[in-house]
Input
Amino acid sequence: MTTRRGDGARSGRGRPRTPVAWPRRRSLVAAVASLALLAGCTGSSGLTSEQARAEYDPVLQDVAKAAAGPLGAKWKDGTGGGTNLTTEGCRWFTKTMTAELDPTETPDWDAVIADTKAALAAHGFPPAQLSQLTGGFTGIEAHDDKGARVTIQSKGTTNIRVSVPVAGPC
Output
């Protein structure tokens, strides 16, 4: 074994240097991560992005209309939408609708839950529940049996959108 200045073997301190299998470990980690991402892109809903759009765009419209009253919201068509690779796999997102609310007041989420219950049920969702959100946001979420999620969150600006896992290319 060749020793270099500062090696433990030369000074008698510590253990001699041994080769580390980092390249093999990195390759293994990369392979596992790739498999996880590919598995996520199969989608648990069985829907394609086009099928998700046809099924879940009406959910966004109906729930936004039902939530407008208790929130005092005038929804504006927002941005986004489309299919993206997320930490949860391949998901299709509706556009995000937004409304400007008083940033000093937390919305009455119980009233929003009550008023959106019928709209959610009409599309196969259970009633929304309060959601644990990060970054100072408050809000509610509802999930259906295909893994779709309706989210209404607020922090000054209130946003609503729907996402669902999809099959096909991300």
Q: What stands out?
A: The chain is about 35% helix and 20% strand. The mean pLDDT is 82.
